Amino acid sequence: MSRDAIAGGGGEREPPRIVVVGGGIAGLTAAFRLSQRLPDADIVLLEREARLGGKIVTERRDGFVIEGGPEAMLVAKPQAQALCRDLELEDRLLEPNSAARGSSVLRGGRLIPLPDGLSGVVPTKLRPIAASPLIPPLGKLRMGFDFVLPRRREEADEALSAFVERRLGRDAYRWLVEPLVGGIYAGDGARLSLAATFPQLRQMERDSGGLIRGALAARKAAPAPPPGPRPSPFRAPRDGLGELIESLAARLQAAGVRVETNATAEAIVATPNGGFVVSRASGETLRADAVVCAAPAPVAAGLLSELDPALAKGLGAIPYASVANVSLAYPLTALPRPLVGSGYLAPRAERRPIN
Fold it and tell me: Is the per-residue pLDDT at 116 higher than 50?
């Protein structure tokens, strides 16, 4: 519902009530933005777990900051930067240690460094790709076809793997793109939507006729980088992403937003007057002029089954991957030499238990 519709037009009205379902980063940010733009609104946030944060889980133990979920933000996304600025966290953002730059791909039981010059998943430097043993010679030759292959005319979405294999070939997808995608999404590229994951790749094909040509053009058009090491595209607060959650919770409390944990919403239904009723597991109901559903897709499907069956069916069909993070700490004396790089990625073709 639009701001004008919620605020109403003229006359004395009660402050609008807005219910936000879900206390992860999406729900907390939505409630925060609403409290800024509609300071008179009566905002209630419901979170079914005992804590806020959703997938963001930060533990601080024995001097370590340990992330159980995401560990950094991509600063290229303006929304993340704007949120940190409004929460006054910009001065607390750190780049990864420069010694931890770069990663490797496991192939044939040995670690091969990812070639330099990747922009997302697209090579912008040809020499490192040509010199890398990661992709076999015929695979490198097939990547070069990207310069001459025609652009796809159909506007329909396609699977990420189908798009990359069409433009760059199977070897490029298997050994270069798939490990990166698996590390980001923990999913199968054959089941991931190009439009939902890397829409800029399709746009590059439309605008430049190919991925490599488009990446080279973007690199040429970009301003010259300042001297010194290239800045990392990632940032994280000094004490972990949990700082975002703690800061958002504090701002919501100061704004008078009612935040309830251990509060499970069971259904969202429309009322004849254009409002909504949110039913809770406790048996209570909340009337609202607007509802923000920021729950995971399978949960949202159940909440919206009566309100919008078609939407609920689509949400319920979205597959989720099960992910486990294991954090280990070792004394420096246990290491035979300093460690360089951020780790390695294991392609599906390696059939390893971790990625």
Answer: yes
